[in-house]
Amino acid sequence: MTDREPPDERDRQSPDEPTTATDRDGDPSSESTARAAGRFASRRSVLASVGSVAGALGLTRVLGVDRVLDPPEGTVSVETALVHPGSGDGRIDPSAIQYRTRTVPADWRARVEVAFDLHDRLLATRLPGYLNSAVVPGPYEDGTARISIHANPGELGAIPRTIGELVSTLDIEWHGLFEGIGVRVERTEVIDDIRDADVEREAHLALARSIDPVPGGVRCQTGDHAATLTPALYDADGHPTFGTAFHAFRDEERFHGTAITVPIDGPSEPETVGHASAALADSDVAIGTPTNGHTPGSVLGNRGQLTIRGQLTRWGLADRVARCVTLAKVGGSTGYTSGPIHGIDAATCVTADGCRLGQVTWGTESTLGNGDSGSVTVDPDPAGVDGALVASVNSARTWWPGQNHCWGIAAHALTSAHGYHF
Asked: From start to end residue, where is composition biased (Basic and acidic residues) (predicted)?
């Protein structure tokens, strides 16, 4: 494979062709899937001899028969982002979408897709000692990928340490596409729960008196606790809603109707901008219905300094890892911080309340502070986009030996599970 840099992302659909954000968000490779399905129908006899790996991992569905039988060559196109055109003032048309695409090496895409599928099988198996894991795409020029696994120190022996051991453990027949996929196992500890969202009262970013639209990235109060607002989250009908961290609502029995308030420069009393209306507990996201004439804005910062134009797909995240793109967040406690992506499609199972799937791990412990939960992680300056693209919604950070990152639900996973999009 030659050393090459794929071209910049390009628009595949104009804003004059409106659709909804949930039409294709579940599988950004639907066009290649359709082509693969056509080959499948005409070559059933060939499929029978491919081996158990094709059926077990769904490689024929994703890559097509030819790519299961032979190493992929050349380049392929992947969808990396869903972008909304807008006027630049935080008001966008959520029904209009441009699909951003990037041409990537075919062998890189094939191995990352196999890593995704192997990771899914790993999550379904839940080996003894397994705590969390993620997929880490390699650089384009390497055409590789890695599965990173964190395990309980007392049960490390149950965790496979090489791709060969992993394939054998999952009872999958070896195939050449597994070459170039690595496995890394690290020690970690089980913890009781994610930390709360409390923050000192003097450490916040207050809003100016004029707060229409209300930006994300500012501190909000959820009863007696503090968190950070997301930028506008649009429901399936395109209505803007407020979003923040669900775990900031400590009294879950009184969740519905809890006031979401923001601090205002000058007045001693905070302003109520919405009321809690939907709990997306599996994603650690709470939805708030706007009130008092306020409108959630697709902007970040207490003065609306950064415009949000949409969100990254799973392949958009993989692309950012491959190119070592730095992500950033604006939080109500620590403001603007940035850091690298460590893993995507991650599962975080270290807490006692079960696994959180579809996560992005990034940054360090210091990237996120108490009160920043609910902030969004963004690519702040994507090429060809007049604004930022959301990668994930932050939930927590590590504070125990052996790990050093923060994590939260990927925007594309939130959309797939609940229909809300940025």
From this structure: 1-15
